[in-house]
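User: Please predict the structure of the protein below. I'd like the answer in C-alpha cell form so I can feed it into my own downstream comparison script.

Assistant: Understood. Taking the following sequence of 220 residues as input:
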Amino acid sequence: MTDSPHLSDVSGPPGRGASAPAEGAGRIRWRRFAVLTLPAVAVTAGLGIALAQGALAASFAVSGQQFKVAASSLDGEGFAQYGSVDVNARQELIPVAVTAIKEARLHNLCQSVVTSLPLVGDISLNLTAGKKAPVEASNLFVDATQLSGNAVFTNIEIGRDASTLDKGPAEAVGMQDLFAQQADTVSITDLQQTAWATNAGTFKLSGLSMNISKGKKECF
C-alpha cells in the first residue's frame, strides 16, 4: 500500500507530489498589472514633463464642455499668444492656443455654454456685461480652440520662441522651441472665440447679467 503524500511534497518544487503551476502563470499576472498601470504611469509622466516645461495652461481641471465668448471690441496692453495644453478631470491633455493680455477692456461681452441633460434637453447659460462701461481684466488668460475678428497689433513679433515671451503677463510663457507671438498692444473688433478656460487676476464686469434658459442660445 502506497503512503499518502506529505504536505511538503504538495508544496515542493515541480516534479514532487502535486503538479507544478502552469508555466508562465506568474508572467500573465505581471502582464495584466502592466497593462492596467502603464497608461496611468504614462499620463503622470507626461503631466510631470508638461508642468516642468511650463506647458500646462489652466491651473485647474477643465470641464468637458467648451464655451463661447464674444465682444464688440477688445483693447489690450501686453499681448502674448502661444500653444499649450489643458488637462481635464480624466487627466487627458487638450491642446489649446493661450491668449494672454496684461490689461484688457471689452465692450458688449457675451459668454455662453449649452448643456444637454437627459429628459430635459438643451439648457443654455448666458452671461452678458460691459454694455455701458467696459469689462476690465488684468492678467487675462484665455485657453481657446478658435478665435476670429478684425485685429490690429503694435510692435508685433511673430515666430518668437514661446519660452522667451516678455510682453504679456509674467506667467505667459510656453515650452522652449515652440512658436509664439507677442505685441505691445492689441485691438480686436467683432471678437468671437471658443474656449476651454479663462483665468484672470482681476475681472470687473459692469452691468453683469446672467440667465439660464431651455433650448440652445449661444453668443454666436
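That's the full C-alpha cell string. The chain has two domains: 7-52, 67-214.
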